[in-house]
Amino acid sequence: MNKPKMTTEKGNSRVLMFLGQLERLNGEAMLADAEIARQITAKILHLIQTQEKTRKEIMSKGSGGMEVGDRDPLTFYSNITLLDYVSLPVPGGGRRVGVLVSKGGTGILLQMLLSASKEWPPSEELMLQLHSVLAKVGPKDRKFGVKARLNGALNVTVNLLKQNLQNPKLLLPCLQVLRVYSSNSVNAVSLGKNGLVELMFKIIGPFSKKNTSLLKVALDTLGALLKSKTNARRAVDRAHVPVLLYIYQDWHRNDTRHRHMLIRKGILGCLKNITNIKLGRRAFLDADGMRILYNTSTECLPVRTLDPLINTSSLIMRKCFPKNRLPLPTIKSVFHHQLPHIPAGGPVAQLYSQPPGVDDVVDESDDNEDAEAENDTENEEDKDLHNDDIETDISKLRPRETPSRPFEELKIYERFFLELSEDFQPVPWTWTPSTSPGAKMAAVTTPKAQHTRGRSWSGICCRSLNSRQHRQPPRLTGVVCPRRGGVGEESPVEEGAEEDGDEGAVLEVPDTALLLPLHDPDLYVEMVKSTRSVPQYSQVAYPDYFGHVAPTFREHILERVYGVQRTKIFQDIERLIHPNDILDKVVYDLDIQSSPVVDDGESLKFNSQFESGNLRKAIQVRRYEYDLVLNSDINSNHYHQWFYFEVSGMCVGAPYRFNIINCEKSNSQFNYGMQVLMYSVQEAIGGRPRWVRTGADICYYKNHFSRSSIAAGGQKGKSYYTMTFSMTFNHKDDVCYFAYHYPYTYSTLKMHLQKLEALRTPQVYLRQDILCETLGGNGCPLLTITAMPESTSNDQICQFRNRPLVFLSARVHPGETNASWVMKGTLEFLMGTSPLAQSLREAYIFKIVPMLNPDGVVNGNHRCSLSGEDLNRQWQSPSPELHPTIYHTKSLLQYLTAIQRAPLVFCDYHGHSRKKNVFMYGCSLKETVWQTNISATSCDLHEDLGYRTLPKILSQIAPAFSMASCSFVVERSKEATARVVVWREMGVQRSYTMESTLCGCDQGKYKGLQIGTRELEEMGAQFCVALLRLKRLTCPLELRNHAHLLDVESDFIETRCKVTSPSTYVLEDEEHSFMEEVDYSAESGDELEHEPDVADTHDNHLSDSESNSQRDALT
C-alpha cells in the first residue's frame, strides 16, 4: 500500500537531481554540453509524463529549472522542452496551459524570446520551440498582447518572420504568434506600421496544394490586422483589394472539391474587414467586387456546406451596395398641419428649420473611424445585462401624492363626474334611441346630466359627434360592380349612387348583421362625414365599410423557410449588377397630390387616400416587384411602421413581391413568423368579409437606403430596413387591402359607441362626454360605465357614489391598433347582460378614454399626434394647446386625486411589435432597486405587493397572458409615460401598461398561433373578469351577496381559458436563432417607445395575505 508513495518520493528526488545537473551545466555555459543537456531533459520529461504528482509539484514550486538565464542556450532549450510538454492539451481542457499562465509562464516565455533574439544568429531550433509554445499559451492569456508589446516581443517576431519567408517550418509558429498579437487592436496598428500587412501579402497567394495550413494562419493573421481601420486604409492605399479578389476567384475556381473552404472564408474575412471603411467599400466597387462575389456565391448555392461563404459574401455585398437616399423629395411627411404655436427647440421647430434638401443627406461615414480602442469588440450580452436606464434615485421611486395644480383649476372637471354626486331623484324622462346616425349618445342619467354635456368652458373644448362640417361626401374606393361574365370592373361610387336607380352600380354588401352586431355600413359612412383629416379624405376603404368577421380557422405562426433572406438580398444585389433589367417606374406618388395614381394598364394600382391609410409612394422595380415607401408621421420625418393601402389590377397566379423599404426598427416580429394582413373584396362579396394573415417569404433586414442623421437622432451611418413579402392573388379584378395589423379607425370607434348605446339596457349607467377637441378638430370621447342603483334609497345611492374607480385608456400610439381591439372587448363585456358583467358594473365605476390620439389614427400616423410628438412621453408636463387629450386626461386623474378618489386601477392599453404574448408593465420600488447596485434599507424598500395581484390573476385566467414577460421596473426614459406618472404623481399603486403582441403567442393555449381580433377582444373581456376577482380578493365579505356567481365565473374561466401559468417564470428576451445567419445590425435606442425586456426573476406568487383572501373567497 505504501509502495506508490515511496515511488513518487523517489521520482521527486530524481527530478531535483537532474535539475541540479542542468544548473551546473548552465553555470559552465559550454556548447559542447548540449548533448548532455538533451539527455537530462529527456529523463525529466519521462518522469513528468509517468508521474502526475511530480509534474504538479514541478509546476507549483517554480524550481530552478524554469528560471531564465540570459546567456545559456542549454537551459533555454531544456526550459522550452518542459514548457512545450506542459502546454500540450489534455482531456477535459487546457488545464496545463492555464496553470502555466497563472504561474507567470507568459512573462518567462517572453523574456526567453527577448534574450534569444540578442544572440546572432539566433538559434532556429530555439526560436521554433519558443514560438510554438507562445502560440499555445497566448490565446489562454487575456493580457498576452499587452505583455508582448511591453516586453518588446512584437518586433522580435516580425524581424524573425522577415528573415525566414522561405522557411515554412519556422514561418508557421511565427504566424500563429502574430495572429494572437494582432487580436489586440493597439498591437495591430503597431504591427501595421512595422510592415506586417505587406509581409502577409507576400505569403498569401493563388491556389496551391502546398502549405495550406500556413496559408490559413496567414489569412487569419491578416484578417486580425485589417480590423484596424488604419491597416485597412493602408491595404487600400497599396491596392491590395483587387489582389484579394483575384486570389478568392482563383481559389473558388480551383477548389472544386471544396476541401479548402476555410482558406476561402479567410480571404472573405479580410475583405469584410477592409470594407468596414468607406475607402475600402469604394475600392471594392472599383475592382468589380460586387459582380465577382455575386457570381461566386451563386455558384455556391447548390452546396449547403458552403453557406458560410455565401453568408459572408452576402454581408460584404450588402455593406458595399452604394448608399442611396430614399426616392423622395423630402423625408418630411407629405402632409403638414399648422400648430397653434411651435415650441422653440422642439422636434417640429428643428424639423422645419432645416434648409430645403438638407433633411435627407446620404451619409456614408464610418462610425468612430479614427478610434483605435484596445478592445475592438463589445460583449453585447454584458451590455444587455447592465441596464443604465433603470432609475436609481429612491426619492423618485416613491409615489408622491403632491397636488401639482390648485384645486380651483381642477373643479371644472367636476362636470365629468356627475355620478359622484348623483341623487337619482324621480324626474320624468324617457329615453328613445337616436334616429340620427351621427347624433350624440343619449345619456342614461337625469336631465341635469343631459343638460351639461356638449358645452364649453375655460380651457376645455367640447364638440358633439353630430357635427355636419363636411368637405366632400365620402365615397367607396375601387367599388366592384357586377357585370356580365363575372366580376365587374372597378368604379368609384359617389354618395347617393343608389338613389339613381342604376342596379348595375349597386354594391352587393355582405350581410354581417348577425355576426357583427356593432357594425353598420351606413352608420360608418355617416361617422366618416364628421371625421376631420389633414388630407381631407373623401373615400372609405372597403374593409372599414364591410366590417371584419374573425375567421374560424387557426392562423399559425409562419415557419421561416431556410435561405429566404439570402434569396431576397441577392435579388436586391442584382439591381446593381443588371441595372438594365430594372423598370424603376413610379405608379403611385402622394407627393403629386393632383394625380397620385398612375394607371397605364400594365402595373398594379395603389391607393391609401382613406382614413388611417399610409402609403406614400409605389415604384415598380420589375414586372411583379414593387418598392413601397411609407409616409412619416405628420410634422415629423420618421416613425415608419404602420401601413394600410389598397391594391388592384393584379394578375391571378403571378408571384408578386412587395418591399417596404423605409422601416426604421432594427428587428421585427416579421422575422419570427408574423404575417401581414390582407382583405379581399371578392372574398367579402362571397360572404367572407375578413382580414386574413397572408404572405410568403417574409423577412426583415437592413437595406442600402441611408437614413439621415437628422432623422436618426444625430447618429451617422444608419440605414433603413426592408420588410419584404411575396403574394399570389387568387381572384381576377380583385381589390385587396394590406395592413400592418387589423385596422381600427376613429370612425369605427364612433360607430361602435353608437351601436353600444343602442344595446344598452336600463340596468346600465352609461354616459358619453367629449373630453376635449384635438388639434385636428376631432372629439375625444370619454365614457362612464357602471350599474344603475337598484333603488333610490340612501344606502343604494351611497353605495353607487362610493364605488371604487377604474380608469382605462388606449390607442395613444395610432399604429398599435390591437389596443383598440382589446378595448372593444372590454367595452362589449362591460355593456353585456351576463351576471358577471352586471356584478362588475356594481363593483366599479369605469372611466374610459378609448382613443387618446384620434388625430394620429385618422391621418395614418404610427406614433405621434399632429404635434409631431409621442403623446406617451408628454404626461409629466402636457401642453393644453399641443397635447389636449393628455392634458385633460391627466387633469381628470388629478381631480380624482384631489377629492381622495384616486382610481384603484389605471391601465393604458398598448401593442408591442417585438415580443409575443400579452403582458403588463407596472411600477415597483423594490423590484427596481433589485435590478441596481444601490444600497437601501429594508425600511426604504417597504412596499405592498398588491401591484402584482392583477397580472397574476390574468396569468391564471387568460391564455394569451404571460406573467414571465411582465416587468415592474421603473426606467428613466419612461418617467414621462402614463404608467409612471399616474403611479408617481397620483399614488396609484396598480398603474399598468398592458402590451398585446402584434404577432402571436409562444405559450399557453394559443402557443404557435398568430393573434387575431377574436383573441384580442377576449383579452379585453378577461381583463374585466380579472378586475372582478381583484375586487373579491380585496373585499372578500362582499362575496356573501354574490355567492351564486362563483360557479358562473368558474365555468367562464374553464371554458374559455383552461390554461394556468407555471409558478416559475424565465424571461426569454431573444427569439430562437435560425439556421441561416440573420444580420439585424441592432442599434441602441431603436425601441424607445416600448418598455425594456427585464427578466422577472422574483416571486411571482400572490402575497400571503392575498392568497389567504383568495382562499377565503373561494370557500
TrEMBL record:
Say which family it is in: Belongs to the peptidase M14 family.
**Residue stretches of biased makeup (Basic and acidic residues):** 383-402, 1091-1104
GO annotation, cellular component aspect: cytosol; mitochondrion; nucleus
**Gene source species:** Esox lucius
Its protein name is Cytosolic carboxypeptidase 1
Instruction: Tell me the compartments it is located in.
Output: Cytoplasm, Cytosol; Mitochondrion; Nucleus
For this protein, the record's PANTHER family field holds: CYTOSOLIC CARBOXYPEPTIDASE, CYTOSOLIC CARBOXYPEPTIDASE 1
Q: Which InterPro entries match?
A: ARM-like, ARM-type_fold, CBPC1/4, Cytosolic_carboxypeptidase, Pepdidase_M14_N, Peptidase_M14
Catalysed reaction(s)? C-terminal L-alpha-aminoacyl-L-glutamyl-L-glutamyl-[tubulin] + H2O = C-terminal L-alpha-aminoacyl-L-glutamyl-[tubulin] + L-glutamate; (L-glutamyl)(n+1)-gamma-L-glutamyl-L-glutamyl-[protein] + H2O = (L-glutamyl)(n)-gamma-L-glutamyl-L-glutamyl-[protein] + L-glutamate
Which cofactors? Zn(2+)
- The catalytic residues are E995
- Name of the gene encoding the protein in the UniProt record: AGTPBP1
GO biological process terms, semicolon-separated: proteolysis
Q: Where is the composition biased (Polar residues)?
A: 1105-1115
Primary localization: cytoplasm
Is the keyword DNA repair in the record? no
Keywords recorded for this protein, A-Z: Carboxypeptidase, Cytoplasm, Hydrolase, Metal-binding, Metalloprotease, Mitochondrion, Nucleus, Protease, Zinc
Per the UniProt entry, the Enzyme Commission number(s) are 3.4.17.24
Write out the biased-composition intervals (Acidic residues): 360-382, 491-504, 1076-1090
